[in-house]
Structures are given as C-alpha cells and as structure tokens.
Amino acid sequence: MDDNNKTKAELVKELEKLRSLVSDMESKRHLTGKLEKGSSLQDIFGKFPTLKEVDDYMIADAMERSNGNQGAAAALLGITRQALNQRLKKRKA
Hints:
Blueprint: H1 3-28, H2 41-45, H3 51-65, H4 70-77, H5 81-92
Helix pairs in contact: 3-4, 4-5
C-alpha cells in the first residue's frame, strides 16, 4: 500500500472512530459543557452537523479541556498525537 492509500485508510479509520464516539456520546448523554442533558449535536450546530464540523468541534473541545496539550487532547479523542497534529495543520490551511 502506498503512502497516499495508507493515509486515506487511516483517515477512514479515524472518521469511523469519530462517528462511533459521537454516537456513543449521544446515546449515553455523557457530554458536559455546551451539550447539556437532553441536548443533541443538532442543538449545538443548529442543524445536523457534517463529520467535518463534528471533527472540528471535538478537536477544539479536546484542546480546550487539555489546556492546549496535544498529547492529552489526542488521548481524549482516542487518536495519536501525530494524527491530531496533522488535523490541526489541516485546519490552519
């Protein structure tokens, strides 16, 4: 598998993890802060959010909760620090 296909496969895997995590969080209502009990992601975004919007939201929230510590934020998100760093670079571009 070349690097491009490997990167795509890793991204798909991370998006599947994200989708599963969001689904888990929604069904169990474990979010705090902006997402109050009985709320949904749709309440936060004002519409059903895209995966990119949810991804951006979760990264920003994890970075805030970890006081900017990328290693801690990555652990909260269930991804490597390197994967988080790549996503942060893409957001700036």
